Task: inverse folding
């Protein structure tokens, strides 16, 4: 039996459940400020009001890989945004670079429409697979940004350096772009190429900031606790190593 | 028509399947069960391949519909025709020569050109960074970019301190340490995301 | 409702939450008729949409509401002070009194004081219907219990028709009911021909005798003489509804006006109370809440207006009794019309006594002309519109204005509110009447109603069709900057490729340890060993990756190893074949003899783990003859992944590299002692910082790394020392250096210019402030 895996799993589950119930008892939201998410909220509102379109790109993260977690965050935000903006003149579009993600994106959009009783307004091409390799995916997204009256680009998922092509298209069409990826070269690219870059695990905080669910906030608090534990353990082990070397 | 009953029996069934499968797979990592794990992985691989095919069909259907609707006909028609042609070339030709020709003279040059566009985009983004976000972090970012570029040229490598001391320090210590820190955060996020799915709090399968 | 897509807490946690939340899924009662289900369904949607509005969106909306000018805020009932309510009641009652006196129905002696306001009655009726829909019993009338609507004689005229504003709670025998205003004379004998539906009977009669007859006549004729707007209100499925049993018997038992207050709801698709949108101001384009009308773009009350008139007409042609149809839809009409009222018109205080201020004498008011009476269709005039009729519509121009109610503000000059003062201003583009509204009597008000409907439709249409979004173009200097960068970079690369020079040479002492480790590992394997090579890079990165991998693959083939090629990228196997056939064709091993293309591993990291656990089961490669390669030499010697002497991964993606380390390396070195099959990597320069820690770990998870073009050039230097050949990395070395130097000059130079620009502007602003 792999005891380490067991402890990690149950420790996380316990922390998430603790914060889930703990947050029920205290009013308000207890998160640090990530201005990009607030700006995204405003951008979504503006897009809905002025009749333009929101484009959510979920990236090319394989659902069966660790990169799938970033894609799941993108799907959560897609569900939230689709629920808010499905009844607008130009409902949101989703693009993916993976076949399985394409299925999930369409399913997510459809379930949002179904929850709103707007299934007649749903079209399958609202969730598109634009390419199956990174560059073909990015080059497939570019005309989508230009042709579909997109005013807000949300890139939430797993993107590599090809993200610069998409952000460049967004900049040329004067669309606001928020980008977050779990891929480190992708993060470096996005830092320079977007107005609202999200670094590191800020990607996974999207659900909590956009009120996707209470469990998102609870899991974010659990992450923070474990992060401090890990940081403390690294510091202690480093100190121990130094002391061991000295004496 | 409006859906009279928004509750779908598919939702709890999908949720049960997702949770049971996920927990079983997780259990195989905690209590090693090679037989079950390999069987599940085989299923996953087959479904992933099927999803790839579905993705291709989605691509064709989207562009086929655009052709029918008269939207951006040229590009979409070119994509559909090229896809069908590549499909037949790949499966009918066992000598591989046409497929290799297609790869060498179409796919690689096109993607390499996109890579060139990417270089220009990144250079443009870098030069605009200071004017867009004039702050300390932007300055550090640009300085690091310039240093990394210099350090990867023959000129930079020839300078004693830069080539053999500073460059390895930046690449192997600073960059690696920063990357590790970010990856730890990413890993924590990945774990919580997976656990949310296992607990049924996140349902990316339409629930 | 689907299981909590909003809250996203797992279902099993729902019961554990401290605060009770509404159940997410309420299976609709099988007792409910289908039309109620529809109604409920439409109720749910706004709730769900409302419920998912995030806090930030709510905050923005609240902030916007607080910032809206006051004239946009329409008073609501709850916000009215008692004085305001009283004033509202007063002026409304003044209008009604004026109307009654205008139409000659006012008998000064018959004016009760006080009178229960009709809105109170209407609200009670609506409440009763709401209770019926929700399954709770309606409040029983104290003196006259309401029979079921099925038992009501729809064809019978109301014996005591107090008008649609009355309720069961009103004392029906009271003589204080202003029959002349809100209904027929209670002493009047019901006509046998008076088969008007309840709600028509409830409409205030402009001329009690003649106009009611005009209304009833079409019903008796049973012809399609029904006004279109009435046909439009015909429910689609009314023909399918069962006939109300016992109508005749019930006619003797209860008056018709009680029809709407039966214990059971009428079998027509009546919108629920919650379905009726709270149209605070139908004149303002603030109906920007399509999400609250989830069934479509039109609100329910507007949907009622466009109720399939064709179906209604078809039913009439099929011989259905006109009166029956209306008897079945009376509730719909009741719910429809009053709720179309803006709240500020409907917010009379039900408890406030109506004070009638000196109604003008009947003799002082000129009766409508004959032509006016003939033109009107009185039944089409809802009472709320009658109450709003302008004074000028029924008074002579020379009538004494001193008799009219005193207005303090500016009067409306056009539209249905013409003549009224102190009307809240509507937005001009919404209330843009093409024709100036004439003073109208009842029938012409029907046209106004239609005009009103058209306006509202226009308003809704404008909400659903947004103006095209103008694509903003990029500024010219930015475009030029892009072109300058592109041209300079291309010129550098072309020049570097064209011109070969030894200007840039690698320092001989600079070979990194991780590359030396790769060289040593390859040197250490025995000839004719099996080596697994993963071509996990994209075609776009082929320039960098093939330059970096060239010398390493060449080294492996030089060692006479047998390569097994695999990839987790869809294009990987073809990229491998292309690379080997084009770059390594000089090796005899490549000419179809000693390398095996295992193909594509689907499933990402999961597929990779599956392959690592059991390569033979994960992939079944076939040769041109259809034979399984695992059964053919040299792969028949491979039983598991440890059978390979070495595993080499060529990738541009750090995530792919990480997957190989995390999923495959444990199978290569099960003891984790560093004694298993070595894992080597050729990675892009962008992946080096991420892969390097795996090389630094102890024991090494990655035994050696070649990184980017620089690493490939170094490896070629090392390897050239053995074979005496230069590789592709060194061929591109000059162009590579030139391009990088140009990039450094561009980025550094323009960034410094921008930096000085920013500093200059920031210094200039304080000076300007200081001088100001």
Result:
């Amino acid at each position: 039996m792999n005891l380490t895996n067991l402890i990690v799993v149950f420790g996380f589950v316990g922390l998430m459940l603790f914060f889930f119930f703990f947050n029920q008892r205290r009013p308000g939201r207890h998160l640090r400020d990530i201005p990009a998410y607030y700006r995204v909220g405003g951008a979504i509102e503006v897009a809905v009001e002025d009749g333009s379109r929101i484009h959510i790109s979920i990236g090319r993260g394989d659902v069966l890989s660790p990169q799938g977690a970033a894609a799941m965050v993108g799907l959560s935000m897609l569900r939230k945004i689709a629920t808010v903006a499905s009844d607008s003149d130009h409902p949101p579009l989703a693009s993916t670079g993976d076949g399985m993600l394409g299925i999930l994106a369409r399913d997510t959009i459809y379930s949002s429409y179904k929850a709103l009783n707007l299934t007649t307004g749903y079209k399958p091409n609202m969730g598109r697979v634009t390419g199956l390799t990174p560059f073909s995916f990015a080059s497939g997204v570019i005309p989508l940004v230009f042709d579909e009256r997109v005013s807000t680009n949300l890139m939430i998922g797993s993107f590599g350096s090809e993200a610069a092509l998409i952000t460049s298209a967004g900049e040329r069409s004067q669309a606001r772009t928020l980008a977050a990826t779990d891929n480190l070269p992708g993060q470096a690219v996005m830092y320079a190429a977007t107005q609202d870059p999200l670094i590191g695990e800020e990607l996974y905080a999207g659900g909590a900031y956009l009120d996707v669910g209470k469990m998102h906030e609870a899991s974010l608090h659990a992450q923070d606790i474990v992060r401090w534990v890990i940081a403390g353990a690294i510091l202690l082990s480093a100190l121990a190593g130094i002391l061991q070397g000295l004496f | 028509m409006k859906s009279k009953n928004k509750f779908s029996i598919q939702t709890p069934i999908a949720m049960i399947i997702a949770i049971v499968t996920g927990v079983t797979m997780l259990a195989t990592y905690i209590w090693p069960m090679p037989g079950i794990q390999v069987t599940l992985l085989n299923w996953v691989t087959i479904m992933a391949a099927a999803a790839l095919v579905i993705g291709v069909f989605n691509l064709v259907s989207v562009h086929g519909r655009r052709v029918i609707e008269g939207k951006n006909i040229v590009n979409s028609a070119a994509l559909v025709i090229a896809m069908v042609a590549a499909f037949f070339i790949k499966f009918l030709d066992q000598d591989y020569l046409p497929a290799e020709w297609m790869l060498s003279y179409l796919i690689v040059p096109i993607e390499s050109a996109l890579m060139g566009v990417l270089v220009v985009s990144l250079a443009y983004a870098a030069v605009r960074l200071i004017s867009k976000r004039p702050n300390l972090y932007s300055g550090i970012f640009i300085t690091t970019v310039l240093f990394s570029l210099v350090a990867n040229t023959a000129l930079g490598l020839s300078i004693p301190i830069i080539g053999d001391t500073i460059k390895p320090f930046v690449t192997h210590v600073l960059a690696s340490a920063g990357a590790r820190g970010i990856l730890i955060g990413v890993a924590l996020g990945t774990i919580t995301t997976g656990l949310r799915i296992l607990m049924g709090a996140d349902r990316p399968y339409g629930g | 409702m689907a299981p909590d897509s909003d809250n996203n807490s797992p279902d099993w946690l729902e019961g554990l939450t401290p605060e009770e939340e509404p159940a997410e899924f309420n299976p609709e009662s099988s007792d409910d008729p289908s039309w109620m289900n529809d109604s409920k369904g439409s109720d749910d949607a706004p709730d769900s949409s409302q419920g998912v509005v995030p806090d930030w969106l709510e905050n923005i909306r609240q902030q916007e509401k607080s910032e809206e000018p006051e004239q946009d805020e329409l008073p609501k009932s709850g916000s009215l002070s008692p004085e305001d309510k009283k004033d509202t009641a007063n002026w409304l009652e003044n209008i009604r009194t004026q109307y009654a006196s205008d139409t000659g129905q006012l008998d000064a002696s018959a004016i009760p004081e006080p009178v229960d306001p009709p809105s109170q009655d209407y609200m009670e009726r609506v409440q009763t219907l709401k209770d019926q829909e929700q399954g709770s019993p309606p409040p029983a009338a104290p003196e006259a219990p309401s029979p079921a609507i099925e038992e009501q004689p729809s064809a019978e005229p109301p014996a005591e028709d107090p008008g649609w504003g009355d309720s069961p709670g009103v004392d029906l025998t009271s003589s204080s009911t202003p029959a002349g205003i809100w209904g027929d004379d209670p002493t009047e004998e019901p006509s046998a021909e008076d088969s008007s539906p309840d709600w028509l009977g409830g409409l205030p009669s402009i001329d009690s005798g003649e106009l009611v007859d005009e209304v009833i006549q079409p019903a008796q004729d049973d012809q399609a003489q029904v006004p279109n707007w009435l046909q439009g209100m015909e429910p689609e499925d009314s023909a399918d509804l069962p006939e109300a049993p016992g109508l005749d018997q019930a006619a003797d038992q209860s008056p018709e006006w009680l029809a709407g207050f039966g214990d059971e709801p009428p079998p027509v698709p009546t919108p629920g109370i919650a379905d009726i949108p709270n149209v605070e101001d139908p004149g303002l384009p603030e109906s920007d809440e399509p999400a609250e009308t989830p069934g479509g773009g039109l609100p329910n009350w507007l949907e009622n207006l466009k109720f399939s008139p064709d179906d209604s007409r078809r039913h009439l042609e099929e011989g259905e009794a006109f009166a029956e149809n209306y008897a079945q839809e009376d509730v719909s009409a009741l719910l429809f019309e009053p709720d179309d009222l803006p709240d500020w018109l409907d917010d009379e205080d039900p408890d406030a006594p109506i004070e009638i201020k000196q109604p003008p004498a009947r003799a002082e008011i000129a009766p409508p002309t004959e032509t006016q009476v003939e033109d009107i269709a009185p039944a089409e005039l809802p009472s709320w519109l009658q109450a709003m009729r302008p004074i000028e519509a029924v008074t002579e121009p020379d009538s004494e204005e001193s008799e009219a109610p005193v207005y303090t503000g500016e009067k409306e000059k056009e539209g249905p509110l013409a003549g009224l003062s102190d009307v809240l201003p509507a937005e001009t583009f919404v209330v843009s009447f093409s024709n100036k509204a004439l003073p109208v009597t009842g029938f012409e008000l029907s046209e106004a109603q239609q005009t009103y409907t058209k306006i509202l439709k226009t308003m809704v249409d404008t909400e659903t069709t947004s103006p095209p979004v103008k694509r903003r173009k990029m500024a010219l200097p930015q475009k030029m900057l892009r072109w300058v960068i592109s041209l300079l970079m291309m010129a550098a690369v072309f020049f570097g490729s064209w011109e070969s020079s030894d200007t840039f040479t690698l320092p001989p002492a600079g070979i990194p340890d991780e590359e030396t480790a790769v060289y040593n590992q390859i040197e250490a394997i025995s000839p004719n060993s099996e080596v697994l090579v993963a071509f996990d890079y994209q075609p776009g990165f082929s320039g960098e990756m093939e330059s970096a991998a060239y010398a390493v693959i060449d080294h492996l083939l030089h060692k006479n190893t047998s390569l097994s090629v695999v990839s987790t990228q869809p294009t990987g196997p073809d990229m491998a074949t292309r690379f080997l056939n084009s770059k390594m064709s000089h090796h005899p091993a490549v000419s179809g003899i000693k390398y095996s293309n295992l193909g594509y591993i689907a499933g990402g990291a999961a597929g990779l783990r599956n392959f690592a656990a059991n390569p033979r089961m994960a992939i079944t490669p076939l040769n041109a003859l259809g034979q399984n390669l695992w059964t053919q030499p040299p792969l028949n010697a491979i039983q598991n992944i440890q059978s390979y002497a070495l595993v080499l991964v060529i990738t541009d993606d750090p995530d792919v590299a990480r997957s190989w380390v995390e999923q495959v390396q444990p199978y290569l070195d099960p003891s984790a002692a560093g004694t298993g099959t070595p894992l080597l990597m050729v990675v892009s320069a962008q992946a080096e910082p991420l892969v390097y820690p795996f090389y630094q770990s102890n024991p090494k998870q990655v035994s050696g790394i070649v990184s980017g073009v620089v690493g490939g050039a170094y490896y070629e230097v090392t390897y050239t020392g053995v074979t005496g050949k230069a590789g592709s990395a060194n061929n591109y070395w000059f162009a590579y250096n030139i391009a990088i130097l140009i990039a450094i000059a561009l980025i550094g130079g323009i960034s410094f210019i921008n930096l000085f620009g920013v500093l200059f502007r920031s210094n200039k602003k304080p000076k300007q402030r200081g001088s100001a």
Observations:
- The two ends of chain C are 62 Å apart (CA to CA).
- The mean pLDDT of chain C is 62.
- Residues 728-771 of chain C form the longest helix (44 residues).
- DSSP finds 28 helices and six strands in chain C.
